[in-house]
Amino acid sequence: MEIRHPIHPEHGKNLDTEGLRREFLVQDLFVPGSAKMVYSHIDRIVICGIMPAGEPLELKTDREVFGVDYFLERRELGVINVGGPGTVRVDGTDHSLDYKDGLYAGMGSRELSFSSRDSDNPAKYYCLSGTAHNRYETQVLPKEKARELHLGSDESCNRRIIRQLIHPEVLPTCQLVMGYTELAEGNVWNTMPAHTHERRMEVYFYFGIDKDRAVFHLMGDPKETRHILVRNEEAVISPSWSIHSGVGTGNYTFIWGMVGENQTFDDMDGASMDDMA
Fold it and tell me: Is there a contact between 29 and 234 (Cβ–Cβ < 8 Å)?
């Protein structure tokens, strides 16, 4: 379990490259046969990477950290599989997840077990969890069920499909919103012009990046931007005061997930190109 603390925007301006990576970058999420958890005090989000290589892996709580008897006692969970086919068991019911399929597990779910159907092609479960106040139904969310938005253009190098999996238009949740954005071949920019949103934090998880490529994730105050070099299957924690944008050396896919005051996807504070520095 890693624990990350909030960073004041004035403090963020003074961090060097090593400091930015230490505070905001999440690496080594997928280790065969293990489950990694990162607990951020920014809106109390939990980031998990689960990679079953043999026996199923259970997602258990840490009572000293969370103060509860089981992980989803006061939380909800979103899952997207970015590996081989697998099965998630929630309270005795098995749910099959193929590549890019999702699952929502509601507050009060006691048993969370993750397995791979083929140990030579293990599942990789990327998970986000936020605090919850109500129990909603656990649901499998195949990629075909996602609400799709087609945005951008080849001329601006940002033609992309946004797939909203855990979203008020798809199913009810307490505060978690989650999905992924796929950039078309030859397109490299995401979320530009950039924005912040004071009422929500966000986490970006980048995948589908060839090993000889990378993404430059842009962050910080719009008038004093910074960047973090991100490799395949790494995530960046974005506080509400920071932009979250990026440009790659090739196309890629990223999972976005938000928790906070509301679930309004378009509740953004835009930063035009004239506002950026």
Answer: yes
Domain boundaries, the chain: 2-275
DSSP 8-class letter at 146 = S
Quote the pTM value: 0.96
The two structure tokens encoding residue 83? 């590996």
Q: Which amino acid is it at 253? A: T
Q: Are strands 34-40 and 2-4 parallel, antiparallel or unpaired?
A: parallel
Which residues are registered as beta bridge partners of 177?
Answer: 258
50 in Cβ contact with 86 (< 8 Å): no
Quote the Cα angle for 40-43-44, to 5°: 45
Angle in degrees, CA 173, 241, 222, rounded to 5: 130
d(CA 107, CA 3): 22
Residue 213 contacts residue 248 (beta carbons within 8 Å): yes
CB 80 within 8 A of CB 47: no
Cα angle value 136/202/95 (rounded, 5°): 40
Nearest Cα to Cα of residue 267 among 218, 219, 199, 203: 199
Class of domain 2-275: mainly beta
Q: Which two tokens stand for residue 29?
A: 């999420």
Assign residue 12 a region (left: φ > 0; alpha: ψ between -120 and 50; beta: otherwise): alpha
pLDDT at 198: 86
198 C-beta neighbours (distance < 10 Å), count: 12
- Contact predicate 269/60, CB 8 Å: no
In the chain, pLDDT over 70 holds for what percent of residues?
100
Model confidence pLDDT, tens digit, residues 214-244: 999 999 999 999 999 999 999 999 999 999 9
